[in-house]
Amino acid sequence: MGKKRTKKRDSAAEYEDLYSDMDGTFAFIAGYTSGGAPYGVTWEQVGIESDLPFDEKVRLYREQLTAQDGMQLEGVEELPFD
After folding, report:
1. pLDDT tens, position by position, for the chain (82 residues)?
2. To bridge 56 with a disulfide, which of 10, 17, 42, 52 should be the other Cys (CB 3.0-4.6 Å)?
C-alpha cells in the first residue's frame, strides 16, 4: 500500500504545480539551458525579497501584475469586436 499524503502536502504540491513557471529563485522562468538550468527573471529583479515564503512571493507578484494591467488599460478605448 502507498503512503498517504497529508492534505497540507497535497495542497502545497498542487499550488507549486499551478506556478510551474516560478521557483524559489525565479519569478518567471523563461526557459532552460541545454544542460537543464532554468533562466529568467529573478524575484529580486521584480522587487520581491527572495527569502519570503513561496506563496507570499507569488501573492506579491500577482498583485504587481494586476496593478500593472490596470494602469495599462487606463485611457484605452474599447475595441470594436462583435
Report:
1. 555 545 555 555 665 667 778 888 999 999 999 999 999 999 999 999 999 998 899 889 888 888 876 655 455 555 565 5
2. 52
